[in-house]
Fold these 3 entries.
Entry 1:
Amino acid sequence: MELILVNLIDGLVTGLLLFMLSAGLTLIFSMMGVLNFAHASFYMLGAYFAYSISLAIGFWMGLLIAPLIVGLAGAGVERYGLRRVHQYGHVPELIFTFGLALLIEEVVQFIWGKNQMPYSVPEVLNFTAFSIAGNSIPAYKIFMIFISISIFIGLLYILTKTRVGMIIQAALSYPRTVEALGHNVPLIFMGVFGVGTALAGVAGVIAGPVLGTFPGMAFVLGSIVFVTIVIGGLGSLWGALVASLLIGWITTFAKSYNIAMSDILNGIGIATPENMSDNPFRDLWTITSPQIADILPYILMVLILIFRPAGLFGKRES
Amino acid sequence: MTDEMTKDPKQQITTDPSKPSERMRAGSMTITLGPWIIAGIALMLMPFIFTSNSALTIMNQMWITVIFALAYNMLLGQGGMLSFGHAVYMGLGGFFCMHIMNYVEDYGVAFPLPLLPLFGGLFGMGFAMLIGSFSTSGAGTRFAMISLGVGELIAACSVIIVAFFGGEEGISGDRTYGLPFFGVEFLKQIEVYYLISFWLMLSAALMYLFSRTPVGRMANAVRDNPERAQFLGYSARWVRFYSFCASGFFCGIAGGLFAISYEILTEENLNAASSGVILLVTFLGGVGFFFGPIIGAIAFTLLQTVLSLQTELWSIYAGALFLATVMFFPGGLAGLLMMHVPAFKLGKMSGLVVPYFKTLIPAAIGVLGICALIEMTFHFRHGATGDNEMTLFWTTFDSHSVLPWIIAIAVAAIGIGIAKMTAPEMKEAWDEANTAGGTS
Amino acid sequence: MKKITKLGAVSALSLIIGATAAFAEDIKIAFIDPLSGPFASTGTNGLHQFEHAVDFMVNDEGGLLDGQTMEVVGFDNKISPKESLIQLQVAIDQGIRYIVQGNSSGVANALTEAIDKHNRRNPDSRVLFLNYAAVDPALTNDKCNFWHFRFDANADIKMDALTDVIAADDSIEKVYIIGQDYSFGKAVSAAANKMLGEKAPEMEVVGDELHPIGKVKDFTPYARKVVASGADAVITGNWGADMLSLGKSIIENGFEGPIYTYYAAGSGMTAAFGEGGKDRIRLISQGSINPIGSDRARDAYNSFLERHPDGNIDQSRIYNTIGMLAEAIKEAGTADDVVAVANALENMEYDSMWGGKLFMRPQDHQLIQDMHIGVHTDEDIEFPYDSSTFGVKTESTIEMASMDSPTTCEMKRP
Amino acid sequence: MSAPALELKGLKKSFGKAEIIRGIDLSIGKAERHAIIGPNGAGKSTLFNLITARFPPTAGTVKLHGEDLAGLEPYQINRKGLSRSFQITNIFPKMSVFENVRCALLWAQGYKYSFWNLVSRSRQLNEGADAILEQINLLERRDLAAGLLSYAEQRALEIGITIAGGADVIMLDEPTAGMSHSETDYITDLILKVTAGKTLIMVEHDMGVVFGLADRISVLVYGEIIATNTPELVRADPKVQEAYLGAALEAEH
C-alpha cells in the first residue's frame, strides 16, 4: 500500500517533467505543424547551460538564466532557420530539426566534452523530505513537482486569461484567420517557439541533476515526447498533461511490479509449455513488465492511432 | 501535418516520364536506356579502378544503401508517406536471410546464394503487408507516428526475443556454404561486389518501372491530392498499401544483401538511428527525383565511412551539411543538379562556368578555412597536453602557436569575402543563363 | 549526373587508400572503438591510454626489434557492428595486423567472427584481435578462435572474485541483482546466481531483474524495489549512463548497503558520484591504482597526467595488452607473421607493472590475472579520477583469479 | 421505365445541432442537365458532398441508377459512374497536365492497381488523354506542371479530370466561380461540349450560365428545395422570386 503511494509520487515527477517538454512541443506542433525533433536537444542545452552557470554563480541563477538563454536560442533558430525552411513544407522542416538535433549534440560534445557532467542537486535541497516505509522522498523531487505545477498554472493562465493567449488559442485552430485579423503570425510563431524551447530548458535545468547531464540525454528522451503529444491529442494542453502523467505512471508501475508474461498467459488458461528451451516462443514467455516498461507508451500510441486517431483530447485528426 | 512534400512552386515535375506518347510509340527507348547502360558499365568497371578490399567493402555498403534509399523514396518521394521506422523492413529481411543461410549451413541444403535476397524481399514484403494493413489508412502524422511506434517496438523486441534476433550480438552466418554458383563460392569480396551490383541494377530498374505503372502513377496522385484520387475511382488507402508493400519488398532485398555482405545482422539494423539515417540520406540526395536517393546514399556513405577516418568531428560537418542542404537546396543534391537543366537546354551552361569558378572556389576554400579553425579549436581544447602538433590538410604545425590561427582565419575570411563579392555576379550569370533568347 | 557523383566517390576513395601507403615501417595497431556518438567518451579515453601506453612502454624505450616504433591508429566504429567491419577492412588494407577493440561485446563478437573468416579466406593478410575490454564469456568459450586474445577478465571471472568477497562478508544476507537487458547483463545475473548458490547457499537473492539498455530515463522505480526488498547489497553489471543513474538513484532513495559493480569509475562517473557514493560503490578491476602497483606504474600514471591532466588511467589492462604484445613480438622476432606472434602470446607469463603476474591461458586465450575489489572513496587516494578528490582504493585482492575455471573452447590452430 | 440517373429521398444532414440539409427529395433523369441554385449558405456544396459520400448523411438515401449508395466510399461511387469536380480547384499540382488526365483515365480503362503494365506503353491510354486535352484546349500545356497553369486553365483541367473517366453522371461544383466574362463563356462552351449525352448536375451562381445550360433548375434555400422546374417556370415562380431569384436577377442586370 505504501509502495503504491511512493510509486504515485515517483510517477508524478516523471510525468510532470515530461509535461514540461510536451507542453511546449504541442504548442509548436499544432501551431506551426513542425515535428520539432530538436525539442529534447533544447532540454539538454538547458541542463548544460545551467551546469556552467551553477559553477559560476550558483544553482538558482542557473534556474533563472539558463531557460532564458535556451528560449533565445530557440527563437533564433525559428527566426533564422525554420522560417526560411517553412516555405518548402513540413518534411524539410522536420529534416531541419533532425539535423539541428544532430548538430546540437555534436556542439555540446565539442564544448563540454563527452563525459558526464558533475551537475548536482543544490545543498539546500539535498535532504530527505520524508520517508514512506523506508523509501525516502528527496526534497528535490518535491521541488520538481512544485516547479512543474507552477509552470502549468502559469501557462494555463496565459493561454486562457490574457490577450496573447487568446490569439495563440485562435491561431491553434484557425491560423489563417488570425493572420487576416492583422496579427503578426510570424512573430507569434517565433514567440511560441521561444517559449516552448525555454520550457524544455527549464525541464533540463531541474532534471539534469537527477537524471544525469551527458551528451546522450536528449536521445534518451528522444521520441517519447512525440508519443506523449500524439496520445494526448495535438494542440491540447490538457491532453499533454494527461498523457504525460499517464505515461509517467504506466512506466513507473510497470517497472515496480514484476508482472510476468507467463503469469498472464497462465491466467487466461494457456499452460506453460514443458520444453521451454526448444520452444520458439520461449522469449515471449519470460518477458516481464520492467523489461518492456519503456516501450509501453509506443504500444499505447499505436493503439490510440488505430482506434482514436485524434488522441485522447484532440479535436482534429492528425 | 499535411502530406505535401514541398511547397516550392519552382520544384520540377518530379518523376514524370511523360514523353509525348508519339515518341514512345516510335519505340525510341534509347533516351531512357542511356543512363542505365552507363550506370551498368560504371558498376562493372569500378572494381578495376579501386582494387582494394576496403574500397569494395565501402562500395558494397554504398550500393546496399542505394537500394534501401530508393525503396524508402518509393514512400517518401513518390507516395508522400513519411516513415520513421523503415529500417525494420530491411532489418527483418536481413534477419530472415541470415536464418536461411544458417539453415543451409546446418542442414547442407542445396541453395544458390544469389537467390537469397529474393527471400529477404518476400519476408520484408510480408511484414509490410501486416503493418500496412492498418498504418496506410492515412498519410501524414498518423502514418509517421505508427511507423515510429512499430519501429521502436521491433527494435525493442530485437533484444528481448533472442530466438529470432540473437539479442544484442545479433545472428551471424557464413555465406560460403551455399551451392557454388557457376563455380563461384563468394569467398572473395569481388564476387560479393558483383552479386550486389547485379541486384542493385535489377532492383533499381524494377523500382523505376514500378513508378511507371498505373499504381505507381496513382501513388504520385495520392501524394499530391489523396481526396481527388478517391474521386477518380482509386482508394487512397489501397494505393498507399501497394506502394508500402513494394517498398518493403525492396527494403528486404537490401537486407538480404546486407546479410551476404557482412554475414551478421544485429539490433543496429532495426533501430531508430538507422531509420533516421535513411531519411537523411534520401533527403540529402533529393526526394523529388528518382535518382536523388542514389546520390544521397553515395554521398552519405562517403561522409560516414571516409570522413570519419579523417576526423572525429565528422558528425558536426554532417549535421551542418544537412542544415545547409535543407535551408538552401530543399530539392537536395539532385535538385541542385536539375536546376541546371533549363540552362543546359538553352545552351548557356558555358556562361556559368567562369562565375562558378569565381564564387564557388573561394567559398570552398573559405569553408575549409572554417573547418580548419574548428579542428584547431578542438585540438587546442581536447588534445593531450604537450602534444601541440597537429596535422591538417597534409601540413603539420603547432596548434598552440599564433601563426596557424592567423593563416586559418585569413583563409576563411578571404575565401568567404571573395565569394560574397562575386556572388552577385554569379546570380546575374545564373539569371542570364535561365533566360531564353539574347546572347550570353 | 551519376557520372559526376561517381567521380566524387573516385577521388574520395583514392584519398583514404592512397593517404595511408606511406610509413609502413611502424608496427601499427588499429583501435576500433566509438570515437563519436553517445559512447564516444569511453572510446576516446581508451584511445588516449593506448597512445600513451605505446609511447611509454615501447617507443620511449627505443622501439621494438630493430628500432621499429609502434603506432595506434584510431578508427571510429560509432559502436556499430557494421561500421566496425568496414573499418576492419580499411585497417587490413592499410597493412595493419593488430586490431584492438573493447567496447560492446556485440561489436567484439562481430569482429572475432569476421577476423576468423578473413584469416581463413586470406592467409596472406592475417590479423590478430586483441580484445581489451569485451567481457562476454562466450568469446573465450563457444566462440573462441586462435586469433582472439582477451586481456580483460571475463564476466564470469569477475563475478567469481566479487562473490568470493560477498560470501565472506557476514553482514550481507540478502542481495539484489540488477542489470541491463542484453547478453552481458544476463550473463552477470546468471553467474551471480550460480556462484552465490555455491559459495553462500544461505544467502538469499531477493531480486534479480533486467531493465532496457540505454532507454531508462528515471531509475527511481527500480531503486524503490531495491529498498523494499530489504537487500543488504546490490550487484550490477551496468555501465555508462545506466550505471551512474542507477547508482545515484539507489543511494538517493534510501538504500544503505554496498553496491558491487563492474564499471562505476572514470569517464566522469567518479566525479558525479562524489560524496554520495563514498564507501558505497565497490568495483572489480585488475591492476591496483591506489595504492599504486609499482614505481614504474607511478611513473606511467604521472606521465599520462602530463599529457591529459583531466584524464584517468581507468583501464590498466591497456598497458598490459601493449606490454605483452611487445614482448610477444620480441620473442617471435617479427611483427609481420601474426601466427608466430600469437604462438608467443599463448602461454606467456608476464609481470605487470600494476602488480601481480599475468598468464595467457593457451586453451582459450583468456588472460589470468589478479583481481582487485576497490571502493569509491577520497581517503588514501594518490591518483583520483575525473579531476575530483575521489578515486578507487583497493580493499581486497584475489590472486590469479579463476586460474582453473573450465572452458568449452575447442581451439583450432592453423 | 428505367430508374432515374440520380434520386434523392429524404436526405438530411446535421452538423451538431445545426441542420444544414433538411430533407431533400429530388429525381434527375438520364441525360438531363440539372442546375442547383440558391443563396450562399443554402447547403449546395454540402448536398454535393452528401451525394458523393464525402460526408455521411444523417438520414435519407441516395440512389444512382436505382442503386442505393449508402455505405459506399467515394472511390466506389466513382466506379459506378458518378464523377464530380470541386468548388476549390482540386487537381494534382505537381504532376504534369497530361499526367493529371491520364490518371483520371486509369480506372475507367480497367488498369486497377496494376503493377505489371507500363502506362507509357498503352496507346489507348495516352491517345485517350491527349484527346481529352484537345477537348479542353490544353494540348500545348500538356507537359507543364498543373500547379503552374492559370486559374481558368486549372478549372478547365478540373473539368477534364472529372469527365475523363467516362462517367455518365457528372457533377460540377461552381465551374465558373471567380472567372472573368470571357473565361466564363469559354468554360460554358466547354461544359456543353464535354457533357453531351450525359447527365449533368451543377451548382452555379452565374445566372447566365445556369439559364444557358440547364434543362431544369432546383432552388435550394436553407437546406430545402423550394422549387424544381424548367428555367422559364422557375424564373416566374413567385416563391423563388421572393426567396432568392429577385435579388440575384437584379444583381445580374
Entry 2:
Amino acid sequence: MYAAASLAILVVMGLALIRAILGPTAFDRLLSVNMFGTKTVLLISVIGFLTNRPDFLDIALVYALVNFLSTIAVLRYFEQHKSAPTDQKESQR
Amino acid sequence: MNWVGHYNYWGAIFLMMSGFYVVISRGNLIKKLIGLNIFSTSVFLLYITMGKIKGATAPILTEASQLTASPQIYSNPLPHVLILTAIVVGVATTAVGLALTVRINERYGTIEEDEIRAKDDSL
Amino acid sequence: MTILDITTALCLTAGCFLGITGGFGIYRLPDFYTRLHASSVTDSACAFLILFGLMLQSGFTLATVKLCFIFFFLVLSSTTATHALAKTARSRGLEPLLGREDKR
Amino acid sequence: METTIDIVLLTFLCITAIAIIYIRKLFCGIMLLGIFSLLSACLFVTMDAVDVAFTEAAVGTGISTILLLGAMGQTNAHEKRPPYQPLIALLVVLVTGSVLVYGTMDLPVFGTPDAPIHLHVAPRYIQQSPIEVGPPNMVTSVLASYRGFDTLGETAVIFTAGIALVALLGSSQKKRPPCASPPQPATLHDHLILRIVGKMFIPLILLFALYVQFHGDYGPGGGFQAGVIFASGIILYSLIFGLNTAMRVVSPKALRLLGSLGVLLFGGVGLLCIALGGNFLDYNTLAARPVDGQHLGIFLIELGVGTTVFAIMVMMFYAFSLRGRNTS
C-alpha cells in the first residue's frame, strides 16, 4: 500500500521534473520546484511509514516550513530586478 | 553476479563526474560553483551509501528494540556525522565563493573566465 | 484488513490518483496559468488525502500531531506561494493563453 | 521496494545533473539545483541517514538558493558560450570516471553488513553510546561527544567563513556616502496575503527551530540544523518585511557577538573539562554521574553550535543583500 503510494508520488515528481527542465518561463520552473517540494514532503512521510519509523516526520515538517522560503526569495528577486529575464517571449512563440 | 550491487556507487560517480565536467568546462564562475555543489552532493551520497546496511534502520534507538530480544540492526552512524557537518560547512564555503565572484564582477565587470583572463593580459 | 486499513487504502489511492492527474496536468497543459491550476490540485487535495490516510494508520500518537502540522503548513504555504507566484507573473506581463490566438 | 525507490531517485538525480550541464541560463541552473537538493534529501532518507536528510532539508532549498540568487542578482544572469570546445574536458571526465568505476569493483556490495566500514568503530558507537553517553540518537552522541573535537573544528570553519565573507563584502558601506534619498529597497509590500501568512509562519519556524535544537538528542536534529532553521525564519522575515526592519530586530553587531559567543561556548566547555580534571571535551567530569555530565556537555555544545550557525547564516544573507542594495 505504502509502496504503491510512494511509486505514484515518484511518478508525479518525474512529471514535475520534466516541466522544470522544459520551462519555458521562469515562473513555470518556479512552480514545478514548489510542487516538487510538496511532493517531497509527501514522499518522506510515506517512506517513514513504509520503513516503520514514523517518528521521522520532522524532516517532512522542515520541508513544509522551509519550502516556502525559496519561492518567496525568487519572487523577491523578480521584484528587485524588474529587468531580470523571465523568458516570456519564448512561451508566446 | 556481484557487480549489480554497486549501482549506488556508480550513480554517485556519475554525479561526481557531471559536477567535475561543469567545473572544468564552463567559464562562468557561478556555474562553476553550481558544479562544485553537485560534486559535493555526490561525495555525500558516496559516504552515506557506504554507511547503509540492508534491512537496517536509522541509528536512533527505538523503544521496541529495547523490549524485544532480537537486537535491531542500525546503519553506521559515523558517515552521517561526517556528512552532516560537511553540508553546513559546504554552504558556508559556497557563500565565500559567491562573495569572491561578486567582488570579481565589481572589479572586472564580468564573471566569465576567459574575459577576466583577457583583461588581466591587457593590463 | 480492518475498516481503518481499507479507508487508508482508499484515501491513498484517491490521493495518488489526484497526484498523477495533477502531474500530467503540469506536464501537458499549454500555459503557465493552467499549469498553476494543475499544481494546486496536487498541493491541496492530493496532499490532504495522503496525509489523512497516514493519520488513520498512526492512531493517537505524536506522529498524528506532526502529520496535522505538516498538512496545516502545506496548505498555508503552498496556496500562498501559488497566489504570490500568479500575482507576480501577472504583474510582469505574462498573459494567459486565451482561445487559440497564439496561432499566427 | 526501497531498492526501487532508491534507483528511481538516483535516475532523477542524474537527469537533473545532465540538465544543469546543458541549460545555459543561470536562473534555471539554480532552480534545478533546488530540485537536486530535494532529491538528494529523499535519497538520504531511504538510506537511513535521517540527520543528514534533515540538514540537507534545512540548507538545500532555503539558504543556498537564496545565496546563489543574491550573487546572481549582482552579476550576470546568462552564461556565455565558451569559445573553446570542451572535448578535452569530456575526455578527462570520461577517463577519471572509468578509473573510479574500476575502483568500485573492489568495494563491498551496497548494503552488506560485514563491510570493513561496519567492523571497526561503528559497533562500539552503536552498542556503547546509549550506555556511555546517553542520547538515543547515536548521531548526536558521536557528533558531540566521541568526535566533539572534529565538530569544534567544523564550527570554527563556519565561523571563519563568516568572517571571510564580511571581510569580502562588508566594506562597501563606508566607501559609498549615503545619498540624499536612499533608494527604497524593494519589498514584497503589495503582497498582502504573503505578509499575513508570513507573519503566521515566522514564529512557527522559530519555535520549530528551538524544538529541533533541544529535541536533537531524541530524534533527528541538533545544533547545525536548528541554527539553519532559525536563520531561515529571520531571512523569511527580512524577505517579506524588508532588510531594514529585520536589521532592527537582529542587528549585525548582535550577530557578530552571537557568532563568536557560540564558538567560545564550545571551546569554553572543553577548557572547563580540563579545569575539572578531565581531557579536553571530556564531559564526564562536568557532573557527579558521568552520564549527567555527558548530557550537560552535549546540551551546551549543541547550543554553541546552533548559535554560531544561526549568526553566520544570517550574517551571510545580510552581507549579500546589503551589497546588492548598494550596487543596484
Entry 3:
Amino acid sequence: MHKKVHVQATINNEPVEFLCEPRQSLLECLRDILGLTGTKEGCNDGNCGACTVVLDDRIVTSCLVLGVEAQGRKITTIEGIAEGHKLHPLQQAFLENAALQCGVCTPGFLVAAKALLDAEPNPSEERIRLWLANNLCRCTGYDKIVRAVKQCATEVNA
Amino acid sequence: MAVVFIPTLLQDLTGGLSKIEASGATIRDLIAALDQLHPGLAARLTEDDRLRPNISVAVDGEISPLGLLEKVSPTSEVHFLTAIKGGRQSCEEDCLSG
Amino acid sequence: MKWFDYSAPSSLSEALKLLRENSQALLLAGGTDLLVQMRAGRKQTDLVIDIKNIAELNQLVLDASGLRLGAAVPCYRIYNHRDIARGYPALSDVASLIGGTQIQGRASIGGNLCNAAPSADAVPLLIALGAICRIAGPSGERTVPVEEFCTAPGKTVLKQGELLVSLHLPPPKPHSGAAYLRFIPRNEMDIAVAGAGVSVELNNGNFQSVRIALGAVAPTPLYAKQAGDSLAGKPVNDACIQTAAELAKAAASPITDMRGTAEYRRHLCAVLTARALKQAIQRAQEAK
Amino acid sequence: MSSQFQVVGTRPVRHDGADKVTGRALYGADIQLAGLIHGFVLRSPHAHARIKRIDTSKAEAFPGVKAVITAADFPVTPDRIVDLGEGDTPLSYVRGNMLASGKVLYKGHAVAAVAATNVHIAEEAASLIEVEYEPLPCVLTAPDAMKDGAPILHDDLRMKELGEATDKPGNVAEHFRHVKGAVEDGFQLADKIIEREFSTATVHQGYIEPHNATALWNNDGRVLVWCSTQGSFVVRDVTACVLDLPVSQVKVTPMEIGGGFGGKIPVYLEPVAALLSKKSGRPVKIVMPRQAVLEATGPTPGSSIKVKIGATKDGRFTAAQATLAYEAGAYPGSMVGPGAMCVFAAYDIDHITIDGYDVCVNKPSTAAYRAPGASNAAFATESVVDELAETLGIDPIELRLRNAAKEGTRRADGPKYRKIGCVEVLEAMKNHPHYKAPLEGPNRGRGVAVGFWFNVGLPSSVNIAVNADGTVNLVEGSTDIGGTRTSIAMQAAEVLGLPAESVLPSVVDTDSIGFTAVTGGSRTTFATGWAAHDAAQDVVRQIKERAAALWETTADKVKHSRGVYSCNGKSATFAELAAKLGETGGPVVGRAAINPRGVGGSFSGVITDVEVDPDTGKTTILRFTSFQDAGRAIHPSYVEGQMQGGSVQGIGWALNEEYYMSADGVMQNSSLLDYRMPTSLDLPMIDTHIVEVPNPAHPFGVRGVGEANIVPPPAAIANAIYRAAGVRMRRLPMNPPAVMEAVWRKP
C-alpha cells in the first residue's frame, strides 16, 4: 500500500504540517491540501511563473518542486506578502498603476518582484525585465507591471 | 419606399438587381413585398417565420436585434447580410472576444 | 504521474545503495527537467532519489586546483559567487542563461549535463573549459572528460548504479578567456536553436590554444576540435576567426525542427562561433 | 480632458484590486467543495481517426475511480441547430467537440473522461482506457483541404452558399462574397496595381489560466456549475442544451477569469464535469493541462489571403479585391466572416469584391481571438498598402489619409459608417512625436499600419440597490477580465453623482441577474456600462420621488445635480436621502435590461521601430506606439492596458507564435516554453495614444477598446522589417529563420 508522507514546513511564518503523496507538487500541496489558492497554476512545467513562491531564500516555480521537498523549509506565498491589513508597497503600486488585468499572473509577479526588491532595492528597467522574464503575463504587455515595480523601488528608496 | 440591398448570392432571383425598392412597416412586411416581386426570396431569407440562421438584417446601418419585427421607415436602407456563423442577430455577434 | 516513493539520502554511500537496490530509480536535483518529463510520461519510476542533501553534490569550491562544482549546485549559487564571476565569467553567464530566475533557483549545471539534451546550454562551455566529470558508482569512482559524457539525446556514459558527483574545471590560465553564446528567438526562457562555447588562450597577439564546442547542432553537444585547433599559433584577426567559424559550421550536423532549419542552424554555428570567439578574446585581453 | 464628468476619465483603484493582489480572489480552479473529486479527459493521439471501439472497464475498476464517461453518456437527442450565444451551430458539432463520437478530428480531441479521488488517479485510470483507432490521413491547411482528393473531415458536409446547401462535398463549409461596385472597372482606372499572397499560422490566445470547470449534479436535479468563462449565460445555455435540460435547471457561477481574449467563450468541460458528477454523485472539478489548452481548445485560424489593390498616381484607391481562406479547424465556423468585413474596412473604395472560404482542417476547432479574423486580413491589406505607398512615392500615413473611411463610407459588406475615428487616428499618428523622431542606425526601420474592429452590442442587465449609508450595490452579469467592474461602476457613479468607490460592483451567477451576453466584442464597458447608466438613472428617478415625498412636492419638481437633490430651496445629498428610504417607502432598486443599438466601431494604428540582426534574422522591437479611438475612455489606465496588451499579443503573433505541426497533425510546440509568447525582456515600454471620437449613440460616447489594438501590429512590424532588412515578409510568424531565409533569397 502506498503511504503518504508527513511534511513539516514553515509557510508564511507559520509552522505547518501536512500529508501528501510524493508525486504531488508543492503547488498542489499549497492549493489542494493547505487551501492556499493564491498561488496559481498556469502551465505546470515551470514556464509561466504563476505558481512562484519563495523557497528558503530563492524564488522557484512551485509546480517544479515536490511537496515532500518542503520538509524543514521556509516558504512564502502571495498570502504572506501583506502585513496584516496593510498591503505591501508593491501590492499598492500594482493597484495604483493598473498593473493587472485578469489578475491570474499577479500573485506570481508580486512574489517574484518582491524578491527582487528585497535583494536589489533599486533595479534598472532592464534588470526588472530580466528578473521577471520567467513570469508570463498575457494581458498587460508588461508595461504597467514594470512601471509599478520601478515606482515601488523609487518610493521605498526615497 | 425603403431601399433593399440584395446580397450578391441572392441576385440570381432578382435578375441581377442589387437594389430594390419596396414598402412595408416591418422587415416581415418588406420580405413579403419582395417575394411578390421576386418569388423565392422569402424562402431564401426566412424559415419558420424567422430570419434564416445565416442571415441578419441591418436597417440604416444598424444590425437589428429584432429581425423580422424590426420597424422600417419609407426612407430606410435595408441590408440583408450573410455570415459564416451568423445568428439571427448578426454575424458581428459571433465575433466576440475579450 | 504514477505513484513513486521518495527518498532524500544525506550521504553519497546511502544514495549509491538506493541506486543499487532500485535499478529504475531516478535522481532529483533541481527537478526542472525531471518533473516535466515525468509529467509528460517520458520518464517513469517507482523511486525518486533527491540528491540535494548530499554534501559532495553541493560543494562549490574554488582554489588553486580550479573549480569543484557539485552536480546539484543550483545556477543562482554559481552566478552569485563573486570569485566565479571573476575567474569563470562565462560559467556565470551560462548559469544565468538557463531558464529564468525561478528555474535558476533550482536547476543545476550537473542536471543540465545529465539530461543530455543536444541543446543543453552549459555543456558546450564545459567542453570548451575542459571540464572533467567525477562519477561515483558501485565499483568506486571514475572520471570522464565532459565531451565524452553525452552519448545520444537523453543518454550518457553513466552506467547502472552510477551518479555524477561533481564537475572539475581547471584553473583559468593567464591571458585566457571563454564565452558561451546561444541563439534563441526570445530573449529569455527559450531552448537554444544553436549555441557555441569557446575558450581561448592568447600569447603575444596570437592564439596559443582554442577549444570550440557547439550545442543543438548534433545528437550531442559537439566538441569541434578541428575548428579550435585551426587557430593555434595563428594571429588574432577577423580572417582567422572567420576560418574557425566556418570549420565549426562544417562540423555541425543539425536537423530541421520547430526551432529552425538545418541550413539556418549551420549558419548560426558560424555566426555564434565568431561572436563567442570575439567575446572570449576580449576577456583574455582584459585578463592578466 | 473634458470637465463635463466627475468620474468618467479618472483613474480609481479597481474595486476587486485588494483581492487580486493578495491572492484572495477566487478563480475557477480555486473552488473547494465538500466531497470534491477530480476529472481528467483522455484525448486522441491521432489527428484524424475512426474510433472502432472504446473499452473503459479497466479504468472503472481502478481503485479511487468514481466515474468514467464517453460520448455514449450524452443524452440522445436529435441533431438540431441551436443558438448558443456564439451564433447558431449544430448541436452535434458542439457535443462532438466535447467528447468525440465516431471519429476524432484533431490530436487532442476528447474521447473519454474519468473522475477519481485525485487527479493523478484519474489520469492513471484514463491511461487504462482502451481506444482502438483506425488512423486516417489528415489535412492541415486551408489550401490543402480545398484540393480535390483531400482527406474529408465530415462525410456529410456540403458547401453552403448564403445558407443554401449545394451538393458539393468537401472541407469547404461555406463560400460567400461581398461585392461593392464593379471591381474590374475599378482596376481599369488604376495606374498601379499590386497583388500579393499572404499566409498566417494558427495562433493561440495564450491566457495564463487554463480552462476549468466544477459541476455538481444536485439531488434536486439541478446542475450547478462553477467555471472560468467569458459568458456565464452561454455556459448555462450550452450545458442545458447538451444535457437536454431546461435552462432553468442549470445555474452557472462565474468565478474570476484568468484571461480569455475570445478563447473562453466556447464550452469544453462543463457538461463533461456535470455528467461525471451525475454518475459519481460527487462534485467534480476538471482543470485542463496546458498541453490540452494548446492542443484542444480553440486557437484562432491560420489563413491564406490574396489581396489586390489598384491606385491612381496621386494615391486614390480605385479598386480592391480579396480572397480569404481561413482554417475553421475540426468543425465549420472560422472567423473568415469578420475577416472579410474588416479586410478593407479602413478605406473608402468604390469597387470591391471579397470572397471568403470557411475550410475544415484536422486542427482544433477555432475560436475567437481579439478582433478575430481581422489581424490576418490587415496583415495582407496593410502590407499591400505599404508597398503601394513606396511605389507611388507617397508617405504611408498620407496615402492612408487620402483613402480613409469616414462617416458615410459604405463597407463592402453593406452597412454605411456613422461617426467613426479613422481619420482622427491617422492624424494622431502623423502628428505624433514618434513619427517625427529620426530613426538612426543600421538595420533599423519604421513601419505603420491601421486596423478596424466593429465591436458589438448585445444584451446586458444591471441592478443597483441603494444602501442606507449612501453607497450602492451594483450587480451585473459580465465576467470581469480586465477591470470592467470598475468601468461599469464608474458609469453608474457618474450618473448618481457619487465617487467610484461608492458604487460596489459584483459579478453574479445566472440565477441572480438578467441575461447578459459574453464579455467579448469589446462590448462590456459599452453595453453593460450603458445598462449601468440606465439603472442609475432609474435610481435617480426613484430618489427624486423619495425627495418629493419628504418635501411634499412632486418628483418632476425635484432637480438632481452631481448627487444633490433640490427643490424650492431645499436640498439633500444622495446619502441623506438614502438614509431615509425606510420612512419614504422602503428600498430602492434601479434596474436596466438592454439590447443596445448604436455600436461604434473602433479604429487603431501602430507606429513601430525595429532592428533586424543581419546575421540571425532576429527582430527587436525598439519602439512601439499604439493609437486607438476609444470613443470615450472611461478609465484611461485600463484603456491603455487594453492597447498595450493587444499590441504585445500582436507582436507575439508577428514574430514568434505559431502552431508548429508535424505532417501527421501533432503540434510540436504545445508548451509555454516552445509556444513563444513575448516575455518582459522581449519588449520595450508600449506607448499609447488614446483618440476620443465619442460614439454619438452611447450616453458617454463609449466605443469599446478590447480588440482593435491587435489588428495593426503584425502588418506594422512587417512594414518596419522591410525598411530594416529590405525583405517583404508575407507569412506569419516572421521569426528569425524566416527573415534570415528571406534575406538570403533577396535578389
